[in-house]
């Protein structure tokens, strides 16, 4: 039986979580899937676990490669996939037993939609009917709300059409060691809406995916790299698409803009002082910087880190960003109100996000 769903799992030292992840995949109530395990040079015995699963269940296949990062592993899975639909899952997370059945049924019923689904960080909530409304629909213009309401940036939590991925030549950027998921999803949605501008995105508001937040060595908590142009280029491309391609109202782009600022300044904080000066000097000279500052000014939106960036006060911007991450955020809020009431009195304040 030809598989209808390719579940792609990059595997790099997930340790004790791997058997649970693979067991949940094997227990799917719909069996016409293949699971492609891409062992990315694991050193904790996970490669052997993958081989054991492939030996006992023909739906599992293993690709062994030298360690090259999550992007390279997912790309290897894309190349090997045989099914018309792709689903990414991390090796320390888990799928609800009826995830494949539910997703393929909804996709078959509405073949022209992009199916996205909810996740949970509470094991006992996995797959439970507890969220309202059960479904939501979005079009291109609603991109900002969809980004805020759904796990849109993550590689998991959605079905990708293999033919569209191939047609658009989409792959994860192997030069990015973190945040590599956003450009892939952004480029996929650009191709999706170019093909059918009035197409809908369907959000199943039921947690069919469990995100393991307790694994300090997980892919999402590792590879936190220094600031690189690719980080802000990805967000700039996303903002540009929303404003120019999709006609998204600026006021609905708050989460995207705040994540843009978070990513930029966290990357600056991760960068050693001497390199940080060079990296931020390059950013201040870029078109991405001018467009970001223009977005705030043109829409009269205020956020505490805007003014330090506006006047190239990198140290203050980074300090405010670190204060944002450490409640009660005293420095952040002091500067927030100072800047708002002295320079930006008529602007709309944005609330910081994690």
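^ Assign residues to that structure.
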């Amino acid at each position: 039986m030809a598989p209808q769903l390719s579940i792609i799992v990059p595997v790099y030292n997930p340790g004790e979580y791997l058997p649970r992840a693979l067991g949940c995949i094997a227990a799917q109530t719909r069996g016409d899937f293949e699971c492609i395990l891409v062992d990315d040079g694991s050193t904790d015995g996970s490669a052997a676990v993958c081989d054991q699963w492939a030996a006992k269940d023909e739906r599992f296949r293993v690709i062994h490669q030298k360690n090259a990062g999550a992007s390279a592993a997912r790309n290897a899975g894309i190349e090997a996939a045989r099914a018309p639909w792709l689903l990414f899952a991390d090796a320390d997370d888990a799928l609800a037993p009826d995830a494949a059945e539910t997703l393929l049924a909804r996709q078959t019923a509405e073949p022209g939609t992009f199916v996205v689904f909810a996740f949970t960080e509470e094991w006992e909530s996995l797959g439970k009917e507890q969220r309202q409304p059960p479904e939501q629909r979005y079009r291109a213009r609603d991109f900002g709300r969809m980004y805020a309401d759904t796990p849109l940036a993550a590689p998991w939590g959605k079905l990708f059409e293999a033919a569209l991925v191939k047609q658009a030549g989409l792959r994860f950027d192997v030069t990015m060691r973190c945040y590599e998921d956003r450009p892939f999803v952004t480029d996929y949605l650009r191709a999706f809406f170019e093909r059918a501008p009035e197409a809908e995105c369907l959000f199943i508001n039921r947690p069919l995916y469990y995100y393991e937040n307790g694994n300090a060595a997980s892919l999402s908590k590792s590879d936190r790299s220094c600031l690189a142009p690719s980080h802000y280029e990805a967000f700039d491309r996303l903002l540009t698409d929303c404003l120019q391609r999709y006609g998204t109202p600026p006021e609905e782009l708050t989460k995207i803009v705040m994540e843009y600022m978070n990513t930029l300044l966290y990357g600056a904080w991760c960068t050693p002082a001497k390199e940080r000066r060079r990296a931020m000097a390059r950013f201040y000279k870029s078109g991405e910087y001018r467009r970001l500052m223009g977005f705030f000014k043109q829409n009269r939106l205020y956020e505490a880190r805007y003014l330090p960036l506006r006047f190239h006060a990198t140290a203050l911007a980074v300090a405010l960003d670190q204060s944002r991450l450490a409640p009660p955020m005293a420095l952040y809020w002091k500067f927030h109100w100072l800047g708002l009431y002295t320079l930006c009195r008529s602007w709309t304040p944005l609330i910081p996000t994690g």
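The chain has a mean pLDDT of 93.
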